[in-house]
Amino acid sequence: MGDEDWEAEIIKPHMSSYVPVFEKERYSSGANGDTFNRTPASSSEMDDGPSGRDHFMRSGFASGRSLGNRDADSSPVAPSKSSILYTSKGFSNNKFEEGDSSGFWRQSSNDCEDNQTRNRGFSKRGGYQDGNDSEASGSSRRGGRGGFRGRRGGFGLGSSNSEYEQDEGMQRAGGLFGSRRPTLSGAEQCVTGNGDTYQSRSGSGSGRGGYKGLNEEVITGSGKNSWKSEAEGGESGDTQGPKVTYIPPPPPEDEDSIFAHYQTGINFDKYDTILVEVSGHDAPPAILTFEEANLCQTLNNNIAKAGYTKLTPVQKYSIPIILAGRDLMACAQTGSGKTAAFLLPILAHMMRDGITASRFKDLQEPECIIVAPTRELINQIYLEARKFSFGTCVRAVVIYGGTQLGHSIRQIVQGCNILCATPGRLMDIIGKEKIGLRQVKYLVLDEADRMMDMGFGPEMRKLISCPGMPSKEQRQTLMFSATFPEEIQKLAGEFLKSDYLFVAVGQVGGACRDVQQTILQVGQYSKREKLVEILRNIGDERTMVFVETKKKADFIATFLCQEKISTTSIHGDREQREREQALGDFRCGKCPVLVATSVAARGLDIENVQHVINFDLPSTIDEYVHRIGRTGRCGNTGRAISFFDPESDNHLAQPLVKVLSDAQQDVPAWLEEIAFSTYVPGFSGSARGNVFASVDTRKNYQGKNTLNTAGFSSSQAPNPVDDESWD
Ligand SMILES: Nc1ncnc2c1ncn2[C@@H]1O[C@H](COP(=O)(O)OP(=O)(O)OP(=O)(O)O)[C@@H](O)[C@H]1O
User: Fold this and answer.
1) Which of 485, 497, 499, 406 is nearest to 443 (CA)?
2) Which one, of 638, 637, 629, 635, lies nearest residue 309 by Cα?
3) What's the gap in Å between 339 CA and the centre of ligand 1?
4) Is there an atom of ligand 1 within 6 Å of 337 CB?
5) In principle, which of 127, 377, 439, 553 could form an S-S bond with 123, CB 3.0–4.6 Å?
6) What's the whole-number average pLDDT of the chain?
7) Which residues contact 349 (CB under 8 A, 6 or more apart)?
8) Complex ipTM > 0.95
């Protein structure tokens, strides 16, 4: 199929539409039967642990800072029988808390605007019902009443963040339900702080740095359809939906831009003290320096040009594991260098294998496929791949939804060794027979917990069972994330060889300690006022404001513009060109405030984000950890302020207390009180409770430890079917 076929475009304006993906499929969560082996201690430094923790503590409930204090630096860990810890200096310590009673408690958020509208008094038309703007002041009594109510979904795996599904799914299904674009009530056009316009639909202007409206160019497609995934459709234009014509601008080619980076922060060296656990058989020893990795000269040059002089813990452990050809599941804090941890050893392998430059071909067969859940994140990973492969014959390509399919194909046919893709676009391209899978040696799932949950799990399964895809025994599969709920880990056996290694870096809950976390009790109707107050104090410092729905993102962005605060927004209802513009304006500081939904919660690495504000708390603690991880990256410090509304957020009190305590943050007394009043024995609302961000669930399958983190035996663990009864 020639390129021209993809160019037959009839440009038509349209309103973006989406159909939320309601994925009903449930996963079986059987044990994979893999054996678990602890990595032997390699040195003598011991860290102490909370050996005498009380019941609440084991349940993910801490009574303030003192109980939650588990600073690896200051609190030596008492040896226990279960596992071996290492600091990233290579010292071993011994701590693993058995019988962790934190429950896996993933809530459904679904970005359900109707629900949000009802629950939060947010007008469905986009207006904010502000009749009673008095703060629903935070008596913990009220919180207590709430218990675990307020959100349905309870145990449902990954039904949260349907924003992501929309990210890949909505445009493919475009048009079916008509436009669901939010209406910016009362603010058809407003002015940002720097005089830019923030426009609604008409979108004829292009206010610099402002919030631009919609005027998406689309092409109606004639169907060319050779293979189809369930979720695809409109995005490729093969079905009845409109085609997208957006062609992202090429990234800058000059060396300075390719290697542009920000400085590591004052706490970068503290990474050395973070505890690391490696589990599984025969783990290769960690390396302490880049030189020990024995990479080729070109790679070393690129590492130096990128400003990397020292390995982060996840890199120290993951690089030798990947170089040894082992499958890996790695869990490490936000902003601690996971991307380079997989890219560098993969590139090293490719160079050692003497990879040949790929040529122009109609069917490309990449050696490496990297998938990530959002377009902006996969683009970022691609830029990292391009940086580290600079000067080699390895060619990285990125493809993602919301862009013209023909453009993706043109990128691919020019040669492709590393394909960075979002799942929907990847499956589309495979269906078009532009990508063959026979040569795949490395499959990387970044934000792997997200990639395997209900949103993307089915697509990922299709990918690994696509014709030509080497079996897991024949390829190397790598999974990275800052969070790894146990139930999701159990699914990993499908993707990983049974002897995969598990690397866990860091503390319970995985929140980065370089982020100063503050929880404020703010009722729904006082949030805007509080937000403006905070933003005025912050001044021009870069701030991400997270809200729960796309409509609200539009509304709050509009509101802030009206308040003369330069703001832009990113969410799944914005066209891709708008999303990229928004991110660009935020990155360069033109708009220092970015209002975002969960689509921006994971992975995005933006220099100088000093503040994250959770205008709405997310529905899960994992998402909270990812969101606040947009600041405090790579040893820099950051601040996160979260508005806790007792009317809707009580289910998060307990896991929040845990996350705050473990990151040595102050825990407000009122939050403890709510956590206490909503405490349910055996359920903590968190999949947490161990000293590590996550633990290797294979431990639970060996008869040695039959407790999962909720304190249930595996067979007792709540089933997603029971979701409704958990409210
Ligand atoms: N060894 C290193 N030395 C200096 N900078 C590094 C090093 N490793 C990574 N970085 C930089 O740190 C930043 C964060 O890295 P990265 O985005 O890979 O984090 P991450 O762990 O994937 O975070 P997240 O969980 O949010 O996805 C990037 O700007 C990256 O270039």
Assistant:
1) 497
2) 635
3) 6
4) yes
5) 127
6) 71
7) 322, 323, 441, 442
8) yes
